[in-house]
Structures are given as C-alpha cells and as structure tokens.
Amino acid sequence: MSKTLTLIFPPTTVTGLSKPVMRSRDELIRSQLEMHAPQGERYVLVAKIIHVGTALLVYARDDTVASRVFDVHTQWTGCGPGWMGNKGAVGVRFTVAAQDGGPGEIYTFVNAHLTPHQPNLDKRIADYKHIVQTLLFPPLDPSKQRHSNIYETTHLFFFGDLNFRIDPPAKMTRGELEAKIRTGEGREDLRRHDQLSIARAKGTALTSLREGDFWKFQCTYKYEHGQVDQYQ
Q1: What's the CA gap between 58 and 47, in Å, rounded?
Q2: What fold does the segment set 1-163 form as a domain?
Q3: pLDDT digits over 78-102, tens only?
Q4: How many CA atoms lie within 13 A of 186 on its CB side?
C-alpha cells in the first residue's frame, strides 16, 4: 500500500527573528543534513517554533519517520522580567505512528534559555520549574481538560543555553581550573563541581533525564576574544 506524506505546519511565533532569517536557517540546516547523509537521504521540516531569540526546528527523514508523524504541536513560555520571553523555552511535540498499528510514541523537544551568571543558580532552577509548569500541550486524553506538561511523553529531549556553571573549590586557582578544562580527566574531575550535576542529584532541576558525557569535549564558552583555548 502506498503512503502519502502529510505534514502539519502549525502557526509559528516569530518575535525577534524575521521569517526570511528563519527560512535561510532552515535551508542551511537541511542542506547540511542532506550533504552528510550517508545514503543521500532527504529530510523534511516537521515543525518550527520561534519566540524572541529562542528557536527550535525539528526534522525527520522523508523516507522513514516523517511519513508517520502526526498530531504536531508547538508551544512557548517566557521567563525573566515580566515573563516577556527574553529567557524561557520553546517546545515541539508530535506523535510517531507505530508500524504495527499500535498507539505510537510521543516525542517532545524543548529548547530553553535560562538565567545567566555564576551566582544565579536559584534563578536558573526557578526558570526550569516555571518551564515545567507553563510549557503545556493539549491533553493527551481528549476527554480530559487538563493540559499535559513536558514530562508527559514517551521521549523528552531538553537542551539549550542552560547557563549552569562550575563552582570550583575556593582554593583552586584560575590557572589550575583552566588546566583541568584542557584535559578529559580534568573535566571529569570538575563534574563534581558542576551546578547542573549537583542540582540533578538533589532533584531540583532536569530530574529523571540522562545527560551525555559532557566532560569528554572542551568547553566552548566563554572564550577570550581572538583566543583558541583561553577563557574569560
């Protein structure tokens, strides 16, 4: 039986990023995906959501998952002063139909931008909790009125500029800190002082999620201008 691909493009909130800019970003991302696809696979844009400076574009392979995507939803929520969205999150949720005719699986993607700066750990955690409470999607059960949060899903991917920092021991000098950053063993040791790792262990942020081995690659922020491996 032949398959017909139907994509739903929900209304997109564009505030701060123009439609031409996002169109060019979409074209660039898709061209790179297809350029490096091992078998020349094609990709389609399943959904996009932009609010202020935070954007999320989700793609699927045209010949596999894309043909089984349905019930696409986008959402955003704001944090920061006046809840205007200079900090906050955008989300995409959709269902992928099961090939055996079952109920399928729900995928939820969240891109967040949390409060920056070293001393503002409590504000970052508050931002996260606000996102969980307010980034809501339609009810999973149509007979019920209650909207569903980001955790009510089969798969959840949470990423973005989360701004959690390292709180190294007071006795550690800047030089010692930078030396640890340059080696995998040193970065793994610094994991004990990572604000997010500590918050996850306490159950105050990003609970029930798994994080990749971030210490296996060198930090990308915040470089000294014009330098390769020197940090501010």
Answers
A1: 6
A2: Deoxyribonuclease I; Chain A (3.60.10)
A3: 997 766 667 999 999 999 999 888 8
A4: 13
